[in-house]
């Protein structure tokens, strides 16, 4: 992901996510790419943490989702992409899913760039010097990695919304992500503020009657990140 995810896709892909042929990265980190530009020799510890920091799990979904549906979620996560329209349609057919929540997930996916832009603006307003020399998101490649993490964090949240599971995170994966963030000195306060901004921007794009239903999926990941501090 950037500071967080593993990369199996190009960030220039559409929100619905199509793999670029011939590319396969493991989902944690555009920061891996960023750091290899600025620090060609990543430590073995960082490389190991990148491989282990997979924060999504569907292991607890077996009682509510058939294997075919779980495979659709897993494939999207492995490829670091949002669920496609085809994925969502198949999930709807395989599971007695809440149609309204699937529509919410689809809408957030389609407006992810707007949502990330608003979250970024919120972070920069809260921490005006964070991208300046000495700030936690300096130089620019670190800031870019942070914004890409926001893209991925919302991706993970949409999996939970689509599957109607707030327990979409892996305790083990989050542990390794915390260690990675510590190793890379990621500004955790800014990440939490950013994720709260993602929640606010997302709920603005959800029908009022759905907001209270959708909010816990964001709150779950916000609380996990707060525990990193």
TrEMBL record:
<keyword id="KW-0605">Phycobilisome</keyword>
<keyword id="KW-0157">Chromophore</keyword>
<keyword id="KW-0089">Bile pigment</keyword>
<dbReference type="Pfam" id="PF00502">
    <property type="entry name" value="Phycobilisome"/>
</dbReference>
<comment type="similarity">
    <text>Belongs to the phycobiliprotein family.</text>
</comment>
<keyword id="KW-0249">Electron transport</keyword>
<protein>
    <submittedName>
        <fullName>Phycobilisome protein</fullName>
    </submittedName>
</protein>
<keyword id="KW-0602">Photosynthesis</keyword>
<dbReference type="InterPro" id="IPR009050">
    <property type="entry name" value="Globin-like_sf"/>
</dbReference>
<keyword id="KW-0488">Methylation</keyword>
<dbReference type="InterPro" id="IPR012128">
    <property type="entry name" value="Phycobilisome_asu/bsu"/>
</dbReference>
<keyword id="KW-0793">Thylakoid</keyword>
<dbReference type="GO" id="GO:0030089">
    <property type="term" value="C:phycobilisome"/>
</dbReference>
<keyword id="KW-0042">Antenna complex</keyword>
<dbReference type="GO" id="GO:0015979">
    <property type="term" value="P:photosynthesis"/>
</dbReference>
<dbReference type="GO" id="GO:0031676">
    <property type="term" value="C:plasma membrane-derived thylakoid membrane"/>
</dbReference>
<keyword id="KW-0472">Membrane</keyword>
<keyword id="KW-0813">Transport</keyword>
<dbReference type="InterPro" id="IPR038719">
    <property type="entry name" value="Phycobilisome_asu/bsu_sf"/>
</dbReference>
